[in-house]
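>> received
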Amino acid sequence: MPSSDHFPMNIESPRSAWTDHLLRMVDRPLSALAEDRLRASMPLECRPGHEERGAFAHLEAAARILAGIAPWLELDVPPTSEVENQSRLRSLTLLALGRLLDPKASDFCDFGSHPQCLVEAAFLSLALIRAPRRLAGALDERTRGRLVDALRASRGHLPSASNWLLFSALVECALFRLAGEADLMRIDYALRQHEQWYVGDGVYGDGPHFRWDYYNSFVIQPALLDVHEAMQGRNEHWDALAKRVRARADRYAIVQERLVAPDGGFPPLGRSIAYRCGAFHHLARQAWREELPPELPPGQARCALGAVIARTLGAPRTYDEHGWLRVGLAGSQPGLAETYITTGSVYLAAFAFLPLGLPESAAFWREADRAWTSARVWAGEDVPADMALWD
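>> returned
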């Protein structure tokens, strides 16, 4: 077993460390949106020449935060130390959604105004799917109707032949839950195309071409799993596909855990690396759903994810002087921004916190600390060889 130097996190109270990081990140933007001042108060950091993205950066922040905290909002019996903050964020979330959807509010966003709104409609859909009682089921009638209209408006944006197909599918899943309607062709097309784009060993291409990046985790595999779960039993072909999707998800969770370096870092490869610990959305989702493969003990996954969270959100200059997230992977690194990266979009880092939706009694939180694979190997421990998935 490696020494404690291989655990850059609070191993005495890992859940408290996670909630501290989460609250520091999301409290300011959610509070501002609930007060109808997010657009006015959130700074805009983006690549020079792309300031027009400020028109919907506040929507990006809100949608991504909600998709990340939804499981925690849904949790019925949180630890006593979390009850007050959970209750407060439940209230803030409902107020925030009301502001986004109220045409008279300063923070109102027209979901038909820009293609990026399809992406954020999908992330809001994820939040609704992940918190069916505390979010979707807690909306007042007027806000619910406005949300349905907003999701319908996002249909006007044509998704590209990429992971964007899954954004359309997620919107349809949410509309099915909220209004009993869905364009099944959009779901079917997304699922069939991603089956065609599977390249092997648990990984999909993002469209017809493979890229070295984290989009299998940012979007593709979590979205495939959530769409299949939301539509389970409604189409025999989809259910047959789901078995292969889950087997690939097991393999990719193993790959993700092995990508975590002994210090909690990971390879800075590909697009959107400024989403920080959000690159481990897939591993976090599998842990939250208690769908980790047998080779990956929950306590080991917890330590790996905790190390990544600490490394990416605990680095100096991660936040500006007012508490807003900066662009970067380990601190302030604006050079890592693509043309679509904004202060709002980097709140996708919230996706790493899905396991907070598990009760304190779950194995993920209860199991003893166990070093992740890379830490064990580089400390000289003998571990089983990695095995590819053949399907």
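>> Residues 236-259 form the longest helix (24 residues).
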